């Protein structure tokens, strides 16, 4: 998890000037003649992502200038400073001018995230430029967020050969030990004895045993339970996926990775709340004892489920975990899962669609998503679609036919296992398809920073 943190301020830190295109000409005219000539020679205009070094009298870099673009170009991107950070030569930089105070925290975080490298299997060149934390921000809090995001990325990026249910449990155990959290794991056949039949059924065909990971931390404040889908690889089961659809299925535990990364942020920040994290960790594999289309299963809650597609397994394992979460009567339950392709068709890979009917939570989340550069999009728990998940032969259908509203019907399915408690479900993608500032191609957290801000507000006096 190589991730550069903020550099210590020193006398040798190079000044970094941030210039937007709208004010560039005025700024340029105020520079000494030799600096102006250098800027002109390199055709620097303040465009978003531009970065140039400014030489000192001895010819070595004495500082740097980066472009901040226009309102329009910034609206089309995130982590604007990160776009230039990777282009700067080796050294430590301290922001001298041009960064709006209200953007300092997010832009500093983007710089740290731009330095993430996944080097478990191949050496990766570290980012050369280090940043001194801008004045006025909580550097430790920003670093805690960056470390949580790095954990999420590492877990998703690791292939299933090294990230099965056992390794996911190990990651949770390590996190618990780091923060003095309590953890309990229910393994294999004990899932049946403890009444988690859906988790056991989905995971029983794999050689690595299914399990339920239950982590608790904190003893005061709001009681928040996070539930993350931990399907470490999804073949589709007997409804086998085609090869192209299976290529990214190492990321089908992205919900679990996201809640573990968020838990890291919460615990490292010391938020005064009572946290519970539940992760049903399984592989959806194919063998002689795999569950079948047409099977009818009884969930922990007692609701029966007809299996019309074994590739709709995520909602099954989440159902048992959500039922357990509800039994504890927390103040809020949040589930996160790479659940449906329909969500990607609806909003693409960059937005985190979510479902929630609690007006206070929705308002808080929407505001936090804006300030944290962590976009979300509200989707409806559309109750008139409830008949689509009722097959007649059982209480619920895990894969309604017809193909319409696939993300909504999956969310409605999950809602059947939560009663009374405010509930939010996030149908995330968990993957960055191509390199972007602060977000290299690969695993990525979604909505976690926005949720962290919401939880901080909920737990404040």
From TrEMBL:
Gene3D superfamilies: Leucine Aminopeptidase, subunit E, domain 1, Zn peptidases. The keyword Hydrolase applies. It comes from the Bacteria. Keywords: Aminopeptidase, Hydrolase, Manganese, Protease. GO terms for molecular function: aminopeptidase activity. Residues 309-316 form the Cytosol aminopeptidase domain. The keyword Cell cycle does not apply. Belongs to the peptidase M17 family. This is Leucyl aminopeptidase family protein.
């Amino acid at each position: 998890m190589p991730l550069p943190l903020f550099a210590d301020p020193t006398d040798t830190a190079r000044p970094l000037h941030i210039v937007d295109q709208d004010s560039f000409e005025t700024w340029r005219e105020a520079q000494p003649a030799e600096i102006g000539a250098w800027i002109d020679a390199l055709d620097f205009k303040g465009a978003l992502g531009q970065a140039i070094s400014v030489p000192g009298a001895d010819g070595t870099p004495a500082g740097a200038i980066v472009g901040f673009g226009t309102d329009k170009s910034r609206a089309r991107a995130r982590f604007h400073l990160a776009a230039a950070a990777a282009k700067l030569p080796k050294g430590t930089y301290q922001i001298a001018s041009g960064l709006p105070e209200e953007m300092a925290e997010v832009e500093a975080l983007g710089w740290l995230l731009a330095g993430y490298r996944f080097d478990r299997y191949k050496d990766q060149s570290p980012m050369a430029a280090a940043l001194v934390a801008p004045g006025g921000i909580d550097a430790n809090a920003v670093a805690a967020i960056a470390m949580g995001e790095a954990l999420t990325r590492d877990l998703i990026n690791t292939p299933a050969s090294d990230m099965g249910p056992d390794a996911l449990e190990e990651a949770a155990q390590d996190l618990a030990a780091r923060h003095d959290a309590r953890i309990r794991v229910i393994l294999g056949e004990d899932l049946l004895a403890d009444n988690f039949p859906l988790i056991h059924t989905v995971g029983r065909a794999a050689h690595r045993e299914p399990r339920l990971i239950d982590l608790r931390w904190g003893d005061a404040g709001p009681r928040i339970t996070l539930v993350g889908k931990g399907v470490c690889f999804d073949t589709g089961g007997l409804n086998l996926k085609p090869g192209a659809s299976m290529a990214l299925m190492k990321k089908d535990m992205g919900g679990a990775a996201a809640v573990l990364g968020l838990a890291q942020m919460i615990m490292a920040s010391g938020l005064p709340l009572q946290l519970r994290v539940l992760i049903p960790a399984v592989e959806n594999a194919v063998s002689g004892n795999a569950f079948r289309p047409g099977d009818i299963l009884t969930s922990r809650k007692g609701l029966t489920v007809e299996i019309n597609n074994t590739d709709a397994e995520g909602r099954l394992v989440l159902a048992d975990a959500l039922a357990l979460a509800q039994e504890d009567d927390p103040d809020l339950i949040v589930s996160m899962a790479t659940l449906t392709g329909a969500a990607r068709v609806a909003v693409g890979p960059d937005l985190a669609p979510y479902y929630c009917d609690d007006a206070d939570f929705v308002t808080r989340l929407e505001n936090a998503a804006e300030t944290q550069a962590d976009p979300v999009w509200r989707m409806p728990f559309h109750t008139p679609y409830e008949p689509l998940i009722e097959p007649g032969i059982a209480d619920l259908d895990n894969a309604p036919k017809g193909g319409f509203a696939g993300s909504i019907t999956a969310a409605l399915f999950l809602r059947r296992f939560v009663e009374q408690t405010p509930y939010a479900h996030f149908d995330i993608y968990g993957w960055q398809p191509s390199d972007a500032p602060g977000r290299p191609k690969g695993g990525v957290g979604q909505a976690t920073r926005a949720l962290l801000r919401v939880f901080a507000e909920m737990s404040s006096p």
